[in-house]
Amino acid sequence: MIGRYRGIAKKNQTVDAAGMLEKISNMENDTTNYRVVVGSYGATEEEYLWPVVH
């Protein structure tokens, strides 16, 4: 896997992010989830992903 934001956050870590919000609907089990796409083609300078340090 390649990418600008690869390896920044670990599993279950809280992050602060800005990017394109996508709605993901699963018709098989009638669930809806959301994901933030950061660093996609045509991304702007306002997109970011940073781990939250407590």
Strand content: 35-45%
Helix content: under 10%
- Helix vs. strand class: mainly beta
The rounded distance between the terminal residues' Cα atoms is 28 Å
In summary, what is this structure?
Helices cover 0% and strands 41% of the residues.
Can you characterise this structure?
The protein has strands at residues 15-18, 20-26, 31-37, 48-51. The chain has a two-stranded antiparallel ribbon. The protein has one domain (1-54). The protein is an all-beta fold and 54 residues long. The mean pLDDT is 86.
Brief descriptors of the model:
mainly beta, two-stranded antiparallel ribbon, two-stranded antiparallel sheet
Topology overview:
Blueprint: E1 15-18, E2 20-26, E3 31-37, E4 48-51
Antiparallel strand pairs: 1-4, 2-3
